[in-house]
Amino acid sequence: MRVICLDLEGVLVPEIWVAFAEKTGVSELTRTTRDEPDYEVLMQYRLDILNSHGFTLDQIQEVIETLEPLPGALEFLNELRSKYELIILSDTFREFAGPLMKKLGFPTLFCHELEIDGESIKAIKLRLPDHKRRSVQYLQKLNFEVTAAGDSYNDLGMLKTSDHCVLFNPPEQLTKDYPDMPVARDYRKLMSFIESPNP
């Protein structure tokens, strides 16, 4: 049996932090895992900025509520889920993802949590270090064949470990760094890759 593992932000929905940066005008928050491969370093950078500006969880959630899935994402997911088992492996947080999961029809999501003190985000609580790669490994131990798709450096562990992998609409530098990885630029090509008997 095959399981499809997808990243969330940049693959199915817009980048949450970029949207929040645009809303608040704090350009430093546009930095994502496309720019900083070390996720914990990136999140500490973000938390420091949030705290320095006094931003609250409510303010971030208000912006997330306005986001919509990327064009074609819901139709793609509906078709995918009619044929395969699907798990979203994301470095987002449960406190952020709720509205987006509702708009995507509540697919299964493995992600992290936040440590909240009142309205302030104090720290991140990683579900498991390197959880995307390790989730794929555990699925394989259960005798699942895993196909994975992601768009950023923090997806590389998941992609390299999976039985079949594809970069979805990645930044140019990532394709240069990993020229042997196949690339899909739209959902039609992504579905074609997934359905190929020998991706």
Give a written overview of the molecule.
This protein has 199 residues and is of the alpha/beta class. The protein has a domain of 124 residues: HAD superfamily/HAD-like (Rossmann fold). It is built from nine helices and seven strands; from the N terminus they run E-H-H-H-H-E-H-E-E-H-E-H-E-H-E-H. Strands 4-3-2-1-5-6-7 form a seven-stranded mixed β-sheet.
Give the key terms.
21% strand, seven-stranded mixed β-sheet, alpha/beta
Element layout with pairings:
Blueprint: E1 2-6, H1 16-24, H2 39-53, H3 57-66, H4 73-81, E2 85-93, H5 94-103, E3 109-117, E4 120-125, H6 131-141, E5 145-150, H7 156-161, E6 164-168, H8 172-177, E7 183-184, H9 187-195
Parallel strand pairs: 1-2, 1-5, 2-3, 5-6, 6-7
Antiparallel strand pairs: 3-4
Helix pairs in contact: 3-5
In short:
With 199 residues, the protein is of the alpha/beta class. The chain has helices at 16-24, 39-53, 57-66, 73-81, 94-103, 131-141, 156-161, 172-177, 187-195, and strands spanning 2-6, 85-93, 109-117, 120-125, 145-150, 164-168, 183-184. It has a 7-stranded mixed beta sheet.
Ends distance: 15 Å
- What overall form do the CA principal axes indicate? globular
Instruction: Supply the CATH superfamily name of the domain at 2-13 and 70-112 and 127-195.
Output: HAD superfamily/HAD-like
Category by helix and strand content: alpha/beta
Overall helicity: 40-55%
- Number of helical regions: 9
What's the overall average pLDDT, rounded? 92
Q: Per CATH, which architecture of the domain at 2-13 and 70-112 and 127-195?
A: 3-Layer(aba) Sandwich
